[in-house]
Each structure stands twice: as structure tokens, then as C-alpha cells.
Fold:
Amino acid sequence: MAIVKIDNVTKKFGNFTALGGIHLEIQQGEVYGFIGPNGAGKTTTIRILLGILKATSGVAQIFGLNAWDDAVEIHKRIAYVPGEVNLWSNLTGGEVIDLFVRLRGSNHKSRREELIERFDLDPTKKCGTYSKGNRQKVALVAAFAADADLYILDEPTSGLDPLMELTFRECVAEAKEAGKSVLLSSHILSEVERLCDRVSIIRQGQIIESGSLKELRHLTMTRVRVETAMPILHLEEIPGVQNVEVFAGGASFQVEGSRLGEVLKQISQYDILALESAPPTLEDLFIHHYQGEA
Amino acid sequence: MIRKLFHNTTVLAGLIWRRDRMRIPVWILSIALVSISVAMSFPSLYPEGPERFIIAETLKNPAMISMIGPGYGLGNYHIGAIMAHQMLLFTAMAVAMMNIMLTIRHTRRDEESGRIEVIRSLPVGRLSNAAATILVLAITNISLGLVMSVGLGVLGLEGMDWAGSLLYGAVLTTVGIFFAALTLLFSQLTETSRAAQGYTFAFLGVAYLLRAIGDIGSETLSRLSPLGLILRTQVYVQNYWWPIWVVLVLAGIIGCAALRLNATRDLQAGIIAARPGRRYASRLLRSPLGLVWRLERTSILSWAVGIFILGASYGSVFRDIDSFFQTSDLYQKILPMIEDFSLSEQFVAMLLSIMSMMAAIPALLILLKLGAEEKANRTEHLLARAVSRSGLLGSFLVIAMVVAVIMQVLSVLGLWTVAALSIHGNPFPFFETLWAGMIYVPMMWILLGVATALLGFFPKRTGMVWLYLTYSFFTIYLGNILQLPEWMAKLTPWGHVPNVPLEPIKSSTVVVSLLLAIILIGLGFYGYNKRDIRG
Ligand SMILES: Nc1ncnc2c1ncn2[C@@H]1O[C@H](COP(=O)(O)OP(=O)(O)OP(=O)(O)O)[C@@H](O)[C@H]1O
Ligand SMILES: [Mg+2]
Structure:
């Protein structure tokens, strides 16, 4: 069953169109990556899912319920961490965590203690004196202490140190193991690459690509570096080859995934001495999509 | 459906109470204590007998009415009538301010800083936060009313019966609830807490002026103002309850409208969408000085208009004073005995003084903005660049000092223009009036000096300067009426200004006040350069 379903959602702020008809579906037990450049519309999409912005048109559903009308029902089963966490300066972290747990109505005391321990948080400090990363941890502890079915995370690690990021990844992996779904928006592509089953790339309010990483890679370029005995002639003219750089005794270039075999066959006539090929990283995908269509 | 909108309201009310468990009792107690102690002082200030009757007669003049409201029961001016006449309006305004500030704090300000976003991602209804705010403030206002009723009732002073005391408390509760609802509405319309607060305070000011003009000329006009309306209860004299019901119904309607807007709008959005602005910084925006102007210009311009209107409204009172002066038997009898006495001129001196305090508000707001910027970690953007601390503080201070002068000039202009137009054979030469107004500028600068010193040494306590201004206002505005001892007025800069144009300007006063302002400012710069900057 689709846990999240966004169908042709648009959002306008005055005359400005922030989302121009997007589609997105998240299945149960899936960790879904949501990436895109600044101002692409990620946070807007997430706020529509949370029912705090009203979609101008289209359908946004979570658990089959309408995101705006049934917000309270939905929120009993989700947990949210924003990128910028602002808290009441004269309440302690512990008080805030308890408040959030109480508002949700569930109570997992042992889980709360365990998470505070794992995230190395001092819950007796006032929120006004926390550093940025520590404020983020308060939100993360409150989110993962909740026994939610869907976690919505909007750049949740933007202030965390590498050690805490590791703890965060463990928490997401545990949630996935327990059959929970996760929507993760992030600019840290290695994080998305490691955690996510499927990814959507959004740009200027349009989803321009979505699928599993494997599928996406197939659509883009593999980077190849060859050393040959004889200089390769007319490399650029082979269909599917791009970004050629020739150096003494070899060349490096990018080739479309679907044409890789054909290209290699052509090159082999120059006597291959060494060959390295790297699948495109998410970063390559990202850059390919933004630059390619800019 | 309706219940879903209010899900978890009580938990959020608990949060609001947790955050304000000190703030709210302090508000309630200080308002109640001031009222009760003033009431206790009245029997000795106004001993029974013919003197009280004469005082009541002098209070019937339009200048007085425009300031403190129409007197009821002046024929039998017992302590109850005195209390309602001299204290109720100002206490009601203090209650209104309390409600404006508390409501903003828990609605638009929390939303603006992103705190409501996390709350709303939890199973919390769209209206729960607004409802929780209303709930807590309703309880606050009812408690305040009860404390006041009981406090005044048990005093058992002459004319202060329980029926009147109950109504006195009810008036304050009602005004409080009305302004809480109104602030909630403005919080929906505007995108920032500053704008919401500005609009609601402007509304309060207009309500006061409407009442002032209405009370001397037109009953209808007064009844259009919620402040005018609630004075029609004639507490301790007639004890009418109908204005209470009218204002409560109005508050209900406004509150429902606010909730309706809140339920349908996006989080963090106002009703008016933001427009795109300039692509490049203008030539002015090249320095901290330019930045302060750019940040504050909207508020400066709105204040300029507001202050001019304030002056003009006071100016419109003069015609009535003048005609009153010519017809009142009592004054015709008293006045010739006092050499050089002119009610109009006396009143001008008072007004210039009051208006300079009002005009000091925008100047203070600008200077204290520096503290707010620091709290929001925005001064680090500037101080990390080639901007010195003195340069930064200086930019805010210079603009604040200039604004103080401009505002005072505008208030005098407003007053003079309308007064000159409406009084036959204009008794106020322009330059003399202007000079009389300018004498207050050094006093306003002393206040800015106090704020600078606070910024330098106690950045978390800058709010104290508002207390000081409020204190000045009360001792000067009500000092004569309440017959406060003279040393209380001498504690404020305004207490040292001669009654220009009645008395001559003493150059020593001016020099001493300027020196004091310079010393305070110097201290502030010293402290600001030495202390830690939070961000
Ligand atoms: N209240 C608003 N009024 C006008 N425009 C808005 C508003 N909120 C967002 N926008 C615009 O909508 C677009 C999408 O913003 P959004 O916050 O969703 O971007 P994002 O993908 O989350 O970016 P980032 O990676 O920087 O977090 C931006 O161009 C933004 O300027
Ligand atoms: Mg974002």
C-alpha cells in the first residue's frame, strides 16, 4: 500500500508557483530520498504533507487520509524533524521532548532514555543555551522516541557532527527494519545514497526524475578511464560518448549506461591496457540533471 | 471536524502556562496593587467637604475630560466615583497592553520563529494554539477582574460598594478579552509579530483618541471606541452592565473571525502575500547607518503619521477649552485671582510634555532593535565584517536621536496647525510653541542614554527603559490629579522641565540634561565595547 501519495499537487504563493504539479508515492517499508537544489520545493512539499500549507490543487494523502483535512489523525502516526529547529528558550530539552511525546499520546520512557544516551544529549539544559546541533538532537530524539509509521525528515542532519550522523543513520536503518517508511530530504548525497531505496529529484517545482538508484544510474553516464596501446581515434564521434579528455596513452570519458557495451567493443580495437569504470555517484546524477537542463 | 481543529488544546494551554507562570501573575498583581493602593490614598487626598466639590467642578473642563474621560457622579463625587473617573480608563489601557503583548507572544511570534511548525507536525489541531492562547488569557483576565473586584470591595471605602467593585473588575476583564481577540485577528492578517503588534497598538491609540474627541464633543464618537464604550458603565455611579455585553459580543465576533482565518490559511503566511523587492541595494544601503534606515523606514514613516495625528487631535481640543474658559462661571471667578494664568497655556505645556513621551517611543524602539538583532544572531554578520562596535551602536543611536527630534517637531506641528486653525485670534505664536516643544528633546535623549547604557551593561534588561518611560508618564500625566509627592516627578527627566510657555526656559536645565545624556551614552559605548556579544 502506498503510505504517501502525492498526485498532481501545485502550490502557489501569490503569483509565484512553488510546485507545478508533482507526483510522488512512497511504499510501506521504504526509505525515500528527496533531493533537489535550494528553493526547488522540497520543504514546500513536506509542509503540504504535514497539513500546514494547503495545496493550491491536487491530492496529498498519507495513510490514505487527506493531508489537510485529517491532519490530526495522520499526525498520531508520523514523526517530523525540520532542518531548522527553534525551541522555547526557557524550557529544557527534556521538557520539550516530554511535551512532544505527550501531545502524541504515546509514552516510551525506556526508548526516550536510550535515545538521549545514544545522541549524547544533556536534557537538563535550557533550549536557549543549546548549540544548533543540540537543538536538532532534541527534535531527533522526540521523533525517534515516537513509535511512528512514517518519519518525515527535512534536512535532519544539517547541524550534526559525523559521529551523530552515524547514530542518525542507525536510527533510520532500525526504523526501516521495523517496517516503517521514511521520507528523507537532504543535501548530503552520500547519506541519501546509503540510506534510500528510491529517490526523487525535484527542480523548480517539478519532479524531473524518480526511481531506484539503479534505475537512475542507467539513465545517466558511467565514467570510464582507459589506457590503450594505440591512440584512440575519433573518440568523440562514437555515439553516446561525452566529456572526452585525452591524455598520453589513454583517455577518460563518460558514456551513457545503455551504450557501454557498444562503446567498449569499438575501443577494444586500440588494444586496451587498463580499464576503470565507475558507476555514477548521486552527485554525478544531480549535477547531470541540473546542468543538463539549465 | 470541529473537534479535530482543537485537538490537544489543553496540553498547549499547559505549555503556555508553563512558559508564563511568572509573567502572568506579575502582570495581574502589579495592575491590581497599583489600583488598590491608589484607591486607598484617595480618602486623604480628597477629604469630604466643599473642597471636593470645587475639585469636581474643575475636572469638568474639556482638557481634563479629553485626558481622563467624562466624569460621572460629579454632583456627589464620592471615592467610588473618583476611582472610576481617574483610574479606570488607564487601568483598562494597561490591561489592553498586557493582552496585546501576551497574545502576540504566543501566536505570531511563536509562528514566525518556526516553533509552531514542530507543534503542528504533532497530532494538534489547526486552531489548538490559538484556542489555548485564548483560554489562558481568558483565565488571566477573569482572575485579574476577580482580584480587582475583591481587592476594591474589601476596602469598603465611601461609595465603593460590592456591586460597583464587581463591575469595575468586569470592565477590566472585558477590555482584556476584547484586546486579546483583536490581537489574535491582527496576528492572522500580518506576517510578522512586529507588524501585528504595531497595528494593535495603533488601534489602541485610535480608540483612545476617538474617545478623547468624542467625550468633549460627540457621544456617538465615544461609543464607537471600545474604551469610550466601557466608560459608559458609569461604575460606582449607575453601574450599567450593557456596555460589558456589547464589548463581549464584539470580542466574540472578532475572535471567531480570527479563528476562521487561522483555520484556512497557511502556516507562517499572512493574508497579504509578500512581493518581490529590489534586485540591488540602493545607494543609501551602503553602511550600518543605511541598514538601520532601511530596516526601520516603514515603522518610522507610520509613527510619523501617527504622531502628527496625535498632535492634531490634541490641537482640536483647544477650541472647546477656549469656549469653556469664557463661559465657566467658576473659572471666571478663580482665574482673575491668579496672575498670568491661562488654562490653555497650562494645557499646552502638559500636552507638549505628554507628546514628547509618545514621540520617544519610536526612537527607543529603533535603539532597542540593536538588542533584538543581537538576540537573533544578526549582529555577527556585521561585526564579523569591517564594522566596529561603536560604529554599529552609533548608527542605531544617531537614527534614534534624529527620529526623536523629528517626531517631536511633528507633534508640535500637528498641535499648532489645528489649534491655530480652530481658535479665533490664534493665541499661539508658532516659533514660541515650537521652542517650547524642543525643550523636551534633551529629555528624550536622556531616555535614549538610559537605553544605551542598558545595551552596554545589561543587554538582557533593556526592557527596564520601558518601565522608566511608563513611570514618567504616570507621574507627569496623573501626578497632579493623584497629588503625588513632587520628588516622584523629579525622578524622571520630564519632572525638571519648566512649564514652558508659562515659565521661561532655563539654560542651565538644558545644559545639565544634555550633559547627563552624553554621560549615559558614553557609558553605554564603553560597556558595549567591552562586553561579550551574543551573536
Ligand atoms: N511563504 C512563501 N512566499 C513566497 N514564496 C515562498 C514561500 N515559501 C516558499 N517560497 C518559495 O518557494 C520555493 C520553494 O521553497 P522550498 O522551501 O520548498 O525550497 P527547498 O527545496 O526546501 O529549498 P532548500 O533546499 O533551500 O531548503 C522557493 O523559491 C521559495 O522562495
Ligand atoms: Mg528546505
About this structure: Residues 389-422 of chain B form the longest helix (34 residues). Residues 1-40+87-274 of chain B form one domain.
